[in-house]
């Protein structure tokens, strides 16, 4: 799917922008008028969902506090497993705050698994990426005993979409989806986000999906119609690169959504993103 060109990418004139303008180019909270209320509602719904049943929660894949899985098993122990990696610019949020994103997928027969990871500045980007791969290694070894032994589809939102795009290369992963992702890290070094991230040249090169050869597995690139232009252009460019390499997948602009409400298209049983993931699940079987 494609749509109209939309607003210009501010990074095309990055050198002319003030530090405040560069920060604003990535400030999803400020760009969404009711972001605080949307986040509070999501967090409240996630807490209620997480407490609803005796799910398989806080399963450690490593020794650190955030190195844990939450698994929401489907009735079918061999059902495809939708992995969801949370966002927060690699320095905020946790898997617990996104538990409600399992609701629709469970309703449609998928198992859902959510890994946590250590946040910056306690962890570097190199360490965060390594933790995601370590979490997937754990899922290979232990997933079947925890109700998550089916074929894996990796997904993520915002910063989690960048991690999902990288995790697509893991042998256990069959397909993936990135939602409103940041796929080029270089400009972040010119914003306040880098105070915690402290990105190195090597990290920008190795962990920017737009700079890497595409992994030739199916990958959906979804973004909100009211997304910040930098994130829109990242998704479109990654889709173009993947298309040129004949990597399967499609581009999904979600109309009438912003950076936060775009997740409704995953959360709802009939949501557009979830329907696309279900198509991937058929492929992954």
Report on the architecture of this protein:
By secondary structure, this protein is α/β, with parallel strands linked by helices. Helices cover 36% and strands 15% of the residues. The chain has helices at residues 19-24, 28-31, 35-50, 103-107, 125-142, 159-167, 194-197, 201-207, 229-244, 264-267, 272-284, and strands at 56-60, 68-72, 81-85, 111-115, 152-157, 173-179, 219-224, 251-254. Strands 1-2-4-3-5-6-7-8 form an eight-stranded mixed β-sheet, with helices on both faces. It is globular and about 55 Å long. The two termini are 24 Å apart. The mean pLDDT is 96.
Describe the strand arrangement of the main beta sheet, using strand numbers.
1-2-4-3-5-6-7-8
Structural class: alpha/beta
Q: Poorly predicted ranges (pLDDT <50, ≥5 residues)? A: none
Provide mean pLDDT, rounded: 96
Count of alpha/pi helices:
11
Radius of gyration: 18 Å
Q: How many beta strands in the DSSP annotation?
A: 8
- The residue fraction in helices comes out at 25-40%
Q: Identify the overall geometry.
A: globular
Structure keywords:
alpha/beta, eight-stranded mixed beta sheet, 285 residues, 11 helices, 8 strands, globular
SSE inventory with pairings:
Layout: H1 19-24, H2 28-31, H3 35-50, E1 56-60, E2 68-72, E3 81-85, H4 103-107, E4 111-115, H5 125-142, E5 152-157, H6 159-167, E6 173-179, H7 194-197, H8 201-207, E7 219-224, H9 229-244, E8 251-254, H10 264-267, H11 272-284
Parallel strand pairs: 3-4, 3-5, 5-6, 6-7, 7-8
Antiparallel strand pairs: 1-2, 2-4
């Amino acid at each position: 799917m494609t749509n109209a060109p939309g607003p210009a990418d501010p990074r095309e004139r990055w050198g002319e922008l003030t530090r405040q303008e560069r920060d604003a180019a990535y400030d999803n909270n400020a760009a969404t008028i009711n972001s605080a209320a949307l986040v509070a509602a999501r967090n409240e719904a996630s807490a209620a969902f997480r407490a609803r049943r005796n799910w398989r929660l806080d399963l450690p894949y490593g020794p650190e506090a955030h190195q844990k899985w939450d698994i929401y098993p489907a009735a079918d122990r061999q059902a495809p497993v939708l992995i969801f990696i949370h966002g927060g610019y690699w320095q905020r949020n946790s898997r617990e705050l996104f538990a409600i994103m399992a609701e629709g997928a469970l309703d449609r027969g998928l198992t859902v698994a959510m890994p946590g990871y250590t946040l910056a500045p306690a962890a570097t980007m190199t360490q965060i990426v390594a933790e995601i791969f370590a979490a997937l290694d754990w899922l290979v070894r232990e997933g079947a005993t925890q109700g998550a032994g089916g074929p894996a589809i990796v997904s993520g939102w915002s910063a989690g979409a960048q991690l999902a795009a990288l995790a697509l290369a893991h042998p256990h992963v069959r397909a993936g989806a990135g939602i409103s992702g940041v796929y080029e890290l270089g400009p972040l070094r010119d914003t306040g986000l880098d105070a915690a991230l402290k990105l190195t040249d090597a990290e920008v090169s190795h962990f920017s999906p737009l700079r890497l050869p595409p992994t030739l597995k199916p990958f959906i690139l979804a973004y909100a119609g009211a997304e910040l232009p930098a994130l829109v252009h990242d998704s479109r460019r990654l889709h173009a690169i993947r298309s040129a390499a004949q990597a399967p997948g499609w581009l999904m602009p979600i109309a009438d959504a912003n950076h936060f409400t775009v997740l409704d298209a995953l959360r709802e049983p009939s949501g557009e993103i979830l329907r696309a993931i279900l198509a991937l699940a058929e492929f992954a079987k």
